[in-house]
Amino acid sequence: MHALDLYASIEEYLDFEDEVHHLYKIIGHTVLSKNPKTLIDIGCGQGEFCHIMDLNGIKTLGVDLSSKQIEIATAKGTNAKCIDIKDLKETFDCATATFDVINYLPKKDIKGFLQNCYDLVNDQGYFIFDINSLYGFDTVAQGTLNIDLEDKFIAIDANFKDNILYTDITLFIQKDKSNIYIKESGTIEQYCYANEELSDLLDSVGFEVEKIIDVNLHSDEEFDKYIFVCKKV
Ligand SMILES: C[S@@+](CC[C@H](N)C(=O)[O-])C[C@H]1O[C@@H](n2cnc3c(N)ncnc32)[C@H](O)[C@@H]1O
């Protein structure tokens, strides 16, 4: 199984709901203040943010590289496609990427990806996304977690090294209620970007960084995330 599909299979058991909804509240209010009619949610996952935007009268499209995420999102009624953003032809008043998506981009691909985001947005439109801070990676995200369920066992081990968070996921799924378990494993890599580095990249593809919002999702001590509000000028 592809590592992104493996993540999709375990996402519902991770218990991040409160944090994610807090994040959606801030990003959602920011999006609504810009009055977009159309929105693309890049790395839409299971479609929850699209759903909230739909309820607010915005016409949305969710896209994700994981076919498993898109399967779940479309089953819940989200207008979603499994497609690489470089292959999209439409443009939108607003693009979003919520809950770590930008951190999934390796250094060698990030500029091209941001260029593709720029091309997806209409003139005077917005690109709004969050990223994890160094504190978020180093202090909050690292660690191990085991989840023991009736028909599956999930083991997660996250280590932050040389500015990359390696999250090893192992999933055992019980076969036909027998004593046989099928093992799936994979590693997700997330890359840490400093705000200045990302601002320079956004500027180089044509976005103006209007605002960076500090966010405390998991801790009161230091900011674990930042939200970038970027305008296509
Ligand atoms: C942590 S999940 C967040 C999902 C969703 N945005 C949310 O708020 O729950 C990150 C998502 O980004 C997707 N993803 C990673 N790299 C991507 C890329 N280059 N293009 C589109 N989606 C990507 C993954 O498949 C995954 O669904």
Backbone CA Rg? 18 Å
Estimate the global geometry from the Cα principal axes: globular
Main β-sheet, in a few words?
A: 7 strands, mixed
Helix content: 25-40%
How would you describe this protein?
- The protein has helices at 3-10, 17-33, 48-55, 67-75, 107-120, 134-141, 195-205, and strands at residues 38-42, 59-64, 80-82, 92-97, 121-132, 143-148, 152-161, 164-174, 181-191, 207-215, 225-232.
- It is globular.
- The model has no long low-confidence stretch (mean pLDDT 97).
- The protein starts with a helix and ends with a strand.
- By secondary structure, the protein is of the alpha/beta class.
- A seven-stranded mixed β-sheet has the order 3-2-1-4-5-11-10, sandwiched between helices.
- The chain has seven helices and eleven strands.
- Bound molecules: S-adenosylmethionine.
- S-adenosylmethionine binds next to helix 3.
Helix and strand layout, with pairings?
Layout: H1 3-10, H2 17-33, E1 38-42, H3 48-55, E2 59-64, H4 67-75, E3 80-82, E4 92-97, H5 107-120, E5 121-132, H6 134-141, E6 143-148, E7 152-161, E8 164-174, E9 181-191, H7 195-205, E10 207-215, E11 225-232
Parallel strand pairs: 1-2, 1-4, 2-3, 4-5
Antiparallel strand pairs: 5-11, 6-7, 7-8, 8-9, 10-11
Residues 4, 20, 42-45, 48-49, 64-66, 69, 98-101, 104 line the site of S-adenosylmethionine (SAM).
